[in-house]
Every structure is written in C-alpha cells, then in structure tokens.
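User: Assemble these into one structure.

Assistant: Restating your components, then the assembled model:
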Amino acid sequence: MSPKSKSEIRKLRPERSEGSKLAWSGAGSAAEDHPTAALLIEIGCEEIPARFLTAAQTDFGSALVNALGEARLLPEGAGAEPLFETYATPRRLVALVPRVLEKQTAQVEEVLGPPVKVAIDAEGNPTKAAESFAQRNGVRVQDLARVNTAKGEYLALRKTTKGLPATQILSEFLPRVVLGMTFPKSMYWVAKAGPRFVRPIRWLLALLGEGKQARVIPFEVAGVRSSGSTYGHRTVARGPVRIKSFKEYSTKLRQLHVEIDPEKRRERVCSECKVLLEQTKWRVVPDPNLEDWIVNSTEWPKGLVGGFEQRFLQLPREILITVMRDHQKYFAVEDKAGKLRPLFLTVLNVDGDPKGLIRGGHERVLAARFSDAEFFWKADQRVPLRDRQAALEGVTYQAQLGSYAEKVRRMKNVAREICALLEPNGGFYPYQEQAVLRTVDLCKCDLTTQMVAEFPELQGIVGGLYARSQGEEIPDVPEAIYDHYKPVGLDDSNPRTVIGSIVSLADKLDSVVSGFAVGLEPTGSSDPFALRRAANGVVKVLVELSLPVPLRALVEKAVHQLNVNWNRPQMEVFSSLINFFAERLRYYLESARGFRYDTVRAVMAAGWDVPADAARRAEALEKIRDSQDFEALSVAAKRIKNILAKSASAADWQPGEVDAAALQAGEEKALYQAFEEVRETVNQHRQAGEYEKALKTIARLRQPVDRFFDKVLVMAQDAALRANRLRLLGKLDELFSGVAHFAEIAPAPQNVGASTKVKVTSEK
Amino acid sequence: MPGLTFQELIFKLSQFWAEQGCVVALPYDLEVGAGTMCPETFLRVLGPEPWRVAYVQPSRRPADGRYGENPHRLLKHTQMQVILKPPPADVQDLYLKSLTSIGIDLRHHDIRFEEDNWEAPTLGAWGIGWQVVLDGLEITQFTYFQQSGGLDLEPISVELTYGLERIAAFLQGTGDVYQVCWNEKVRYGDMRRAEELELSVYDFEAASPETCRTLFELHEGEASRLLEEAADDVTSDPARFPLRKAYELCLKCSHLFNILDARGAISVTERASLMARVRRLACDVARVYVERQSGTQSPLVEAEPA
C-alpha cells in the first residue's frame, strides 16, 4: 500500500478530534488565542427576482459559512454569538460573519506507516519496513510516532501544516462560493462559456476586519473585482461609498436609501399600511404573498394611497382584487364590513411623492386596467356561458386527450357515476344530480372568455360570476362553478356545496386517470400536470365531506370510458392508479391529519377503498392505541398473525367456525366466551361507523387473550384440538382486522412514556 | 410643461442611442409581431460579431386589436428596439439615462425592474430579464438574450424594447393613446385610428381562413425549397444564397399564423404544429446564417474592440 493513498492520511483538527484516542499536543489548543475579525461580503446584482430572494439570502449565508468551516477559518465555541447574519435587497446579497479567524488553524496530518508488530522487531529495533517508511517520507525513524488504531498499533508520521492567512484563503474560495450558488432559474450575461448567476453581478464588497484594520479581500468574479465600496439606491443615491465596518455599512446604506434587512422593510410596509389609512377607518385587504413580494422587491419601501372611480366598484370584488394584486401589486382597501373602497395602497421604492406625479401615474394605469376589465365583462356577457359550450371543442386540454369539450364529456360520465354511488346511501337527490351535470356542462366555458384569457388565475371564479349574473336557473350552479377548482392544495378549503365538491372530484379524477392513461404520471420531482395535487384534492374532498364513495369502482369506470391510445395495458394503468391514490391517501392521513405512520398503515391494511371510512378508523385507532390494554392486544394480534401465517403453510387446518364443544375448559373456553360476547357488539359498532367504540370493545379481550397464550399451547399434539384452536385464533384475527391490522402497529418503546412517544414517532 | 410629442420621442431616443454607438436602422418593411423579429435583431445577435443597433418598429399583434375603441390596446403598436452586443457592464444605467434624455426625472418617479422572462416560441428565442415599470406602467422589456433561432448566444446581447405609445402617453399625461400628440397638430388617433379599425375588422372577421392557410403553406413551401436547395448545393457561392428572403417567408408565415389565431381558425392540434413549423424555418435560417457568417468582420470591431 502506498503511504500516499488517501485512506492512510487522516486530517485532524485538534478541536474537532474529540473522542479520538490520539494524544495530540499541538499548538493553539485554546481557540481564544486566535485573533478573529468580522467578515462582510456583499454581492451587488442587477435586480434579483423577488420570488428567489429569500432563499438566495439564506443559501448565500450558509454556503459562505460552510466554506469557512471547511477552510478552518471559524473559531470553535463561539458561544452565544450568532454564527452569521444575512440580509438581502433586490440588488444585493449580504452576509456578515462576526468572527472569522485571521489565520487558519494549523492542520495536523497523520500518515500511517506499517503496523508496529511488523516495523519493530523483538529487540525493539526498527525493521526494514520502518526504515523504508521513514525514508520515503524524508524523516528519521526516531521521528515517527506510535498510534493506536482500531486495527492495532501503527507507526505514524505527524506533519503539522501551518495555517494560512484568512485573506489568502478567502481570495481563493470566495469566487467558488459565489458562482457555486444555484437558483431555480439562472442566466448568462457574458456568454454561454461565462459566469452563470441569477442576474448579472455588478459589484463585490469584501471586507475583513473593521475600522483601521479593515482590509479588502481581493478576488474576482465574472470580471468584477472586489472592493471596499458599496452602492446606494439606484436612482436616489448611487455611490460608490467606501465602507470600514458592518455598522458603517448598514448606517451609510440607510443614508443612501437602502434598508438591507428584509424584516425591517416588512415592518415599514406594515406600519405604512396602517398609518396611511388611519384616518379613513379602513384597512388593506391582507395578502401575505403580496407583502413578501413587496418586501423582496424594494430597497426603500414607502407606502402611497391612490384612488379610482367609484363606478369600477360595480365590477366583482374578485376581479378588482386580481387586477390590483396580480397586475399592479397593489393592496386593495376595504371598510369594516369587508366592502371594497375606491382606494388602493401601493408601495414605492423611493422616499416619497411630494409632487403627486407617481400617484397620478399609478391612478392612470389602474384606471386603464379597470376599463379593460369592464370591457371584458360587458363583451363576455354578450355570449352567455351556455352558448359557449361548442367553443370548447377548440380549446385544447392536452394534445393526446383532446379538447376541453372532450374533457367535459368524460367529467360528466364520472360525475354521473359519483351521483349513482351516492344515491343509495341517502342524502343525495336526483335534483342535485341535475345541478351537478349542469355545472359540469358550464364549468369550463369561461375558458373561452376574454376575462379568463386576461386573468387566467380567475378561471372558475369568472364562470361562477357570469353564471350568476346571467341568471342561471338551477340553484347552486353558479357557486359550484365558482368553486370547482377547489381545493387547489391540501391547505385550500373545499367547495362550499356538495354539488361543487362532486364536480371538483369529477374534474380531478378525470385529470389523474386520463393523465396516467397517456403516460403523464408524475415521476420523482417531475409532475408537469400537477396530478399529485389533483389526487390530493380527490382524497381531501372524499374524506372531508365524508362521501361514502368507493374509489376503486370510480377509477375503474373512469378508465373504461377513456378513448385514448393505450400505450400499455389498461389493467396496468388501473393498478398504478390504485397505488397512486393509496399513496396520496397515506400522505394525506400522515401529513395533513398528523396520524402516526403505523396507525395509517394498520388502518389501510384493513382496506381503504372508501377513503372517508379509512380516515374515521384512523381517527379512532389514534385515540385508543396508547391505552395499556390496546398496546398489549396489538402485541397479541401480531402473535396471532404469525401463528396463523406459519400454520397456513402447514395446511393442516382450514378457517371456519369454532367447534365450541371441542374447546377445553379454562382459558380456552374463557377466551371463546369473551369473543362471543363482544363479537356482535363490535360488528354493530363497526357498521354504525362507531370505530372508537368497536376498538374499545375489542380491547376488552386483552385479559382473556393474554391468559390464553400464558396457559394454552396452540400447537397441540392432537390435530383436531390444534385445528380448533387455530380456528379460534382465525376468528379473533378476523375480528381484529375489521378496523385495522393491529399487527402493523409498532411496539411502543419500553422506557418512554406514552405522551412523549407520540412526538417521537410522529416526527419521523 | 407638456411632454414630448410622439415624433420627438422617436427623435430623442434615436439620438440618444446613436450617441452610444448604435446604428440607427430603418423599420423593417414586413409585418412583424415585435422588433425582435427583424433581421437586425434576429440574425445579428447570432455569432461573435459585436453589434449595436436602434430602430423604430411598428409591430402587429392581431389578437390585441380592439377596433380602435380601447384607449390602451393596439393591434399595431410602435416599438423602439435597441440591441447591445455585448452589453456594457453599466447597461442598466445607460438605459436609465435614456429615460432622462426623454424628460423623465428619475428623482420624482418610481422605476422598477420586475422579473419578466421573454420567449418567442416561433423564433426559438428566449431571454431572461425584466419589465421596466415606471410608476406602475410597464414601459420597456429589458432582456438578456440566451438563445435565438435555437442557438446559444456567444456573446449574449441585451435587447431593450420600449413601448413608445405608452411612454408618449405617460409623458403627455393622457390615459388615451389616441389623444397622444404625434406632433403639435396631429394626434395619434388622426394618424392611426382608421387603420386600427380596418385591421381589426380584417383579422377578426373578414380574413379568409382558407386563403390564410394557403398563403401560409405557399410561403412555408417557398422558404423550405430555398433552404433545402442551399443544403444540397455546396458548390455555389454561399453569399448568393437568398437567406434573408427565406427569413422573410418565415416571417410571413408567422404573421399569417397570428391572423389565423386571432380569427379563431386554428384547431386543437393545429396550433402547436403550426408554431413548430414556423420555428423550424427560423432555426434553419439561423443555422445557415451562422455558418455563412463565420470569419466575416463586423464593421463595429475596429470602432469598439470587443
């Protein structure tokens, strides 16, 4: 083995080698002896997209600190002091590391030589092996040390490499830290061969130390050389300005109309919203996403209130808010009753608008936008939704799946099926089916309107508003159209009515099923048609509306009616769909509902075709599973399953009725009696969906079961006796498995109390 | 003080960019959807030669037609197109100076660069950049081209596209584009309203889809024929190949596609395939251009070393 092979070189840092048995006594054991200095880096950019800024800010900070750590430039035991701070504005990413070592800590390298038993002979003299190892490394044999390793005692050479000055190391790795950053979307600005970043880098501030000690760390990225200067607000106060410390940096930038701290900018935005509307008693319509966007797209936020003509308030609130929020980035303003007022609040990136020029500009633009919306509203009404169905033939849903008209036809079949499945269970009436089918007919028609072409995010909503204003005759239909895209995610609310929910189900089921049929199923992180989200919606609606709908039958129907080019057998598509929905249900129960993974597994093993039912069983099991009786019972249930599984292969018994007469007195009979006593009750509770009661009743079997296993040998010599006992266990298993497979429940850790255990398992 | 007239705005911006070393080119004499489609942009951003150009370009988007009734939307609007290849490091500042040159005092306004990436699928072109927003009004598209004609760009070009009607309306403080003063006496409406109405009527109602489709195929066929012959014939002088004609034919297809689209005459599957057909022509042209161009010198090389 070559001594240069990597496995032989162990790099040690004295402070980091805790736990190692190596006795090491190098220089600088006390970190406090090492002088430190603050490191301030600012990457000056052209405007970084607001949506990337928060992640870029933290990524830059952690990339820098990781690199510092790897370069042995961070002091140990920095105490309560924060390791680093980060800030960001659209034009800069900033990281401050208050304590960076001026010099790298020394590095001790240990080069392992031959084992001592080979290198030192019986007389204690070095052998050839020891000499040649020393020679290869250019040292004398007596300079070698002995070290203990897991494999025994070895000769070793210890080399201490002195640390280099921080400035030198930083100059080397800072370009890599900067250009090593990744973004959801980045760009070239010189050439394809050139640097890649979120937006062009235009300046770099890199300072180590403060005041008179402050030094620029020289490096270059993308033709930009680092300096000790920064730049102020783009149009108000440009710069460059020389900086000597972080304190000076943040104060000077404030004078130059830049607030580097996003949280301070957020405070300003919020207080401006309040202060500006104080006298009106009105308030902005809260919008956290818009607030984030504003915080991340300004360096010097300043609120401004503008107005618009009263007549525009005749347009629906949804449209007014969308125009203001999505197109102009304005907050809408409402009164205490929640009614919109003819005002908006925008946040500027300049200190004020003393001449009112900016407000005038915004008001003109908004008036133009509203006039457009008004125009669309009136123009769209000329062709009511019901007359737009034919036009859906010309709107593509997906190349292989045809137009929206075809999608609507498929949705209609699925919706009919759902209605049919609901009716026998009561609570659903034919007139409702009529409303469902009407909603399906109309719900996609708004895709042909100018309003949705202009504001695609309002699909569905616009349709609902139009149906209402066009006097749709069947009640509930406008609302159902309005809601049918809901829930958009697990956090979103469900449609308000059962009509809307059924249409939402039909829409999403069709998207998932037809998507799978033509090979659009999600793989890994790629899910271009958002089918996971659609399937999550299906599960959520089924469960939260407690719809007694079997998913399998529904999916089967949806698959059968498809008229597509099957590129794989229908059965295969069907089974991957079933797996997909099972996975979505599992995800929903664990992530949205917070049930423990083994609760979910136990419940789903007992069947999940009606997701709402599976959810109710999970709820019940979650409540009762930590009781002592139940824990013991689930251990017994596992045991029963194992015994039955083993005996099934032996094939010397068949499941069936227990021969009561053949039971022996004592524990065996007692168990059977107990079983007979609870069986009916459990079944009644189950059928009534009273799963908690069913489980509690089952838990009463704990004692008889335990005693049975204590005293009775199931695998008796006598074949008839054995078979009868196995049948008894089979009956118990059947009873247990009706709600959940208890055997799936992970045993509780012995030394941890029930309450803490909940946390431990659910966090995994 | 009232702002610049429409024509003064054109003069000032042309003058400003001329001073930055841009060739002030003439508007292209074909229907285009944007100044990007003119050869002075589409072809010149390809290859290594430095280039700076500025030109006014009337641009047609049939689907945006509003019969001359909507004060903010035009079927044919006017762009000021600027290409800076390679872009200088202070390109944003340069752009802001151009705003100052047309009388916008940046100290009294709020100017923002908001993420807006641009893509022209029929040209195989896309870029990263912003919409420049002035007091809530989008006035310019600012793009770092990444690809054109399906080819990576070396070097990258910056494209600035000013929306002249909007800027003029802003400068003159009017909310109605037809009220914009073209000069002291003539309004924008006097110059253009009739044309807006007529073009809207044609594109939305009167256009014969059959004829448009036939024309599309004729133009496409002619372009393909040229490009195929060029590929087959390796002996003749490449400089003689009517590349720009092939490109013109491609642009004709693009415009006809837009009319068919506005007319609502494009079926489900047809849309994507028609776009792909135009893109193929554009990409073929780009490839031939780059091959032919390699080794030639840009007139700007001496004046401005890269």
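Chain B has two domains: 6-202, 205-293.
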